[in-house]
Input
Amino acid sequence: MTITEQIIDLSPPPTVAPRVFVVVPAFNEERTIQSVIDGLRRCGFQRMLVVDDGSTDQTAMQARLAGAEIVSHLLNRGLGAALGTGIAAALRLGAEVIVTCDADGQHDPVDALRALTPVLQGQADVVIGSRLLGAGHMPWRRRVANGIANVVTLLLFGIWTTDSQSGLRVFSREAARRIELSSDGMEVSSEIAGEIARNGLRCAEIPITSIYTDYSLSKGQGFRMGLRTLGKLILRKAAGRKR
Output
């Protein structure tokens, strides 16, 4: 399965309905969470749901001051668990469309707005924002790591995407309901791609801007974490075959 890049219209919608929820997983992001929420609000998003994944700093307080709704984990459980919690909470609250967005300021909120259009117009069930197709220079180490992750995702799950590790995605309600996440950690990004393929969902990529700072670069996966993520993906695939 190859994700299409042919989108008819990427113009942002004139207004963002209150049934559109942005899920922002966050762990110790007190430095950036307010600016992320403020940027989303300036772009017209009304419902921001921050999943405070066991932070030991003031992430939850800063997010609340910015006007976000908060769901908290008592302990740090990982990106996959935070996304699963946030998506489930958004569905319970009546979300018709769910956007996921990183909390470190890496994404331009205008791209989140643009990514809504294919789902709102019924052109796609899922949209993935690709940093490799858009503006902004991805450091070469991350480019290599991302390329390896893309190949692994293809080999394990049979789906090709230019940015399998992107945190900016849009799901229709039905797509979000059908995707089943079991990963707690960073491997969730490849798991989502696998779930898109397993469910036969219509998925498209759009180019997005990547905004790298020393802070956002410090938040990514290192080499050892990448190896652990790869190992978890292989184990998950093997377990799936046994069922």
Observations:
- Residues 223-242 form the longest helix (20 residues).
